[in-house]
Amino acid sequence: MPDPNAPPRRPTLTGGRIRLAPFAARHLTPDYVRWLNDAAVSRHLEVCSCGHTLASVTDYVRKTLADPNEHFFAMEDPDTGRHIGIIKLECFQAVHERGEISLFIGDTSRHGRGIGTETIVLVAEYAFGALGLTKLVSGCYSVNLASGRAFEKAGFHREAVLRNHYRCEDRWVDGWVYARFAPGRAPEAQAGNRVEEGACPPSP
């Protein structure tokens, strides 16, 4: 008999170069722990790059999977099934119809191939379609230009700049907030500052 308290099952989302599988025990590997402890991977993430263990990561994953508002996916190579990163969609659904995306590609050999953009697009389509969300947001360090480009290519626009918002490698950097609205749900322009859906305003 199914456990009535178990979190809902998540679908597998498949693109041309990436497959997003619901995070499972098989994804809890030494590689995942190593990514989190690797400063080259985590320097622009809101996690410290030291001290992570398989036990601590397992505890985090267990809590995340138990939360019905968290949609946690492992990025997999669709040909080999190799785990190369993660993406999480946290939903504030009941009232605000909003979701927040966070992700990283741990396998650095896959950087610069457009996988991040495709992953974001897949999750956005899932959020606006299956989940019925109105708006998606995400943030990144201003020095993380690759992340900003990935969101812009996925149809997000830079909605806000948070000055000196993050401490990164002994200096303060801005935070960039990106947003995308569901088709037909973008707000009307105010004071002439209209941003067309899917369009990216010029970066300052």
Describe the secondary-structure layout.
Blueprint: E1 13-14, E2 19-22, H1 30-37, H2 39-42, H3 54-66, E3 70-76, E4 83-92, E5 98-105, H4 115-129, E6 135-141, H5 145-153, E7 157-168, E8 171-181
Parallel strand pairs: 5-6
Antiparallel strand pairs: 1-2, 2-3, 3-4, 4-5, 6-8, 7-8
Helix pairs in contact: 4-5
Describe the structure in your own words.
The chain has about 200 residues and is of the alpha+beta class. It has one domain: 3-Layer(aba) Sandwich (Aminopeptidase), CATH 3.40.630. It has five helices and eight strands; from the N terminus they run ββαααβββαβαββ. The chain has helices at about 30-35, 40, 55-65, 115-130, 145-155, and strands spanning about 15, 20, 70-75, 85-90, 100-105, 135-140, 155-170, 170-180. Strands 1-2-3-4-5-6-8-7 form an eight-stranded mixed β-sheet, sandwiched between helices. Helix 4 crosses helix 5 (about 145-155). The protein is globular, with a radius of gyration of 17 Å. The chain starts with 12 loop residues before the first strand and ends in a 23-residue tail after the last strand.
